[in-house]
Amino acid sequence: METRKNISLWVLYDFANSIVSIVFFLYFAQWLVIDRGVSDFHFNLTFTISAILLLLTVPITGSLLDKFLRRITGLRHTTVLTVIFYGLCAISALLNKEVSSLVFFTLGLYFYLLSFTFYTPLINDIARLAKRGAVSGLGITASYLGQFAGLVIALPFSNGTLNLFDAAPRAETLLPSVFIFFLLALPMLIFFKEPKKIAEKVSLRLEIKNLFKGTRELFAFPSVALFLASYFLFNDAILTAANNFPIFLEQVWQVSDTIKTYILLGVLITSAIGGTLSGLLADRFGHKRTLIFVLTGWVFILPLVGLLTNFTLFIISTTLMGFWFGANWAVSRSLMSYIAPQGKHNLAFAYFGLAERASSFIGPIVWGLVVSNFISIGSDRYRIATLAVTGFIVLGLFALARVKDDRETLIIKKLED
Fold this sequence. Notes:
Number of domains: 1
Mean pLDDT: 85
Largest sheet: none
CATH topology: Growth Hormone, Chain: A
Oligomer: single chain
Distance between the termini: 19 Å
């Protein structure tokens, strides 16, 4: 399993799925809320619904993975379903059908997020324990480079230079991104090699019973529960702010889509650097210690970006913020690989993915309620929403402080070897 080919395919998939993610992130939100007049609350509700669907399915999926299923098989199915529903969402947008586009976007988002239940745990198979930070960093770098490529590809559609479907410019960007995502994901789906598992008959009732037992055993490790709680909290703020960033730019700064693209390109460049650099630093200084440093930075950076009134300083701050974006995802993922107990990696990563995306259950509601109930103060309501979600990072930092140091795990592993 630990081959350069498998690592390359794993990294390429991170590049591919980021293309469709960034295009929908920037243009679908604006097409829906700005162009078609759908409320911020209803847009954010899509993240809440997808989180509920994940809550109902991810734990049992992770449990089955540990015993019966091959990860690559699950990744193939979820990738195809992501392409289908995102494709239907894109077509609905081209036809100016807001309701159907919202439904298909919610389902596409669900399968997109579910795919990481199968994709992320593969890091345990393709990288040695001491190198997971570096490999995770490569994946994060590829992710941000994919987002960079997605913005470049979408730009001529968004500014009207290219018009293939005779539709609104923002709607034009969506379908090409879905096609390119599927094309670049194919090598991973076809050529990735994973050892076969012996086919066994599965009793869903028995597996649900075993899931509860496995969950109790998993959370008997205090650091697992503490880290997942911490991740849920701080990711709540970061993910919610990120999902609403294009609308924030439009409502607070009134900048064009071209300027938005350039801003995000700058953020993505620093994010790619931050992902790689933080992975290397975490391998050297400790993953928990590095993540504490990253979260402490977020406590100051997010309110700063939300409250700045000088556009030049805002650009500088958001560009620097990219370092923290890249570091956040890279170090969190690699720290989870240390904390997860032996034999429970898939279930642990299932809850890790659930904690990441279930944070979209609370954060979007808080954000949506703030911007919907403070319309009288104009665009400043988006600044208040930024402050409101920062509190989750502080709470996450307190929980993380009680997680065991991953350097102890590495020392024990070396002694066992």
